[in-house]
Amino acid sequence: MRRGMSRARLGGALVALYPEPWRDRYSEEMRALLEDDPPGARGLASLLAGAARAHVRPQRCWRADLAPATAMRLSVGALFACWMLVSLAGSAFAKLTEHMDPVEHVHPLLSAARGMVTAGAALGAAAVAIGGLPLLWQALSTAVRRRDRRLVGLLASPALAGCLLFALAAVLATAAPSRHGGFPAGFVLGLLVPLALGTCACALVGALAPKAVMRRAEPPLALLRLAAWAGQALTVAIALVALGLSVYVPALWSAVGAGRAPSGPLGLSTGVTLVLALGAALTAVGPALLAAGRARRAAVAAG
Q: Does 117 lie in the same domain as 39?
């Protein structure tokens, strides 16, 4: 019986991974079914695969009844998550290419690509400030007015995740084996891999927290429309960063000797690490375009 209850609770946790419109329509029925018939390993895997399909291919039957405010809120949250992924790619790019000035001087295409990435970063920061700061202020005001501890916790979660990442980095830097030049396996496994995983976890918290905050704070329609239109500029910024990286990475590989020395995390070469950053940026483009289109349509409908 205890194993059945554990499987039912795990299945309920997997149901929480489904899109919000799906949960609003089907979650109660699904949770009741899981309690009556706890899933096995195959059923849990099916739930996880279904959650992925629901995000990638949302069905009209449970999306059609979305209010414009809800559609904008979900789309804005998705756009911010895409921006966090692109920000990770941009941070890796900035760190790995900070000493590429001589190579970029010889290869003007690299300089032009860096300009696109920089322009995208500036535009994205401005879009996040214009669309996000009013929502943040409204959430803070709501948390104080309602004395909502859960909302306060959600607002504080990105800062708390950042502090935990800093503490993890300090512990790893103290306990990890010495580097002694290059990237020995002990140094990579003892410092770089845990630090990379911690950074990804911190970014995931930062990407998902705004969505949870908006759901609980219930921002007014005017602020959501502002964020939806700012999201259009954010999508352009994401595309600019991805385009800049798409130009920079092949150009770097074509430069004689450039990008082949070990440099990035895990001891990979600069070029290979930038390919991974490019892959992350390109992964964000498609979902960002879809979310921006839905946010625009919802903003127009809210008119």
A: no
Contact criterion met (CB below 8 Å) for 284 and 78: no
Query: What confidence tens digit (pLDDT) does each residue in 278-288 have?
Result: 899 999 999 89
Place of tokens 């911690």: 198
| Cβ atoms 89, 214 nearer than 8 A | no
Range of the domain at 12: 2-62
Q: Is 199 exposed, middle or buried (0-12, 13-18, 19+ CB in 10 A)?
A: middle
Mean pLDDT score across all residues of the chain:
83
Token output for 191? 């410092």
**Spatial CA neighbour of 237 closest among 94, 125, 131, 113:** 125
Give how far Cα 184 sits from Cα of 58, 192, 301, Å. Answer: 45, 11, 57
Residue 84 has pLDDT above 80, yes or no: yes
pLDDT surpassing 60 at residue 259: no
**CA atoms of 111 and 21, how far apart (whole Å):** 44
101 and 14 share one domain:
no
The backbone torsions φ and ψ at residue 262, rounded to the nearest 5 degrees and listed phi first, read -60, 130
Shared domain for 153 and 192, answered yes or no, is yes
* Lowest pLDDT segment from 29-33, 169-173, 226-230, 264-268: 264-268
Tell me, yes or no, whether 138 and 256 share the same domain. Answer: yes
The answer to whether the predicted template modeling score (pTM) of the entire model surpasses 0.85 is no
Provide long-range contacts, Cβ within 8 A and 24+ apart, for 151-159.
151/213, 151/216, 151/217, 154/209, 154/212, 154/213, 154/216, 155/209, 155/213, 157/205, 157/209, 158/202, 158/205, 158/206, 158/209
Backbone phi, then psi, for 91, in 5-degree steps? -65, -40
The CA distance from 189 to 41, in Å, is 31
Query: What mean pLDDT do residues 256-270 have?
Result: 56
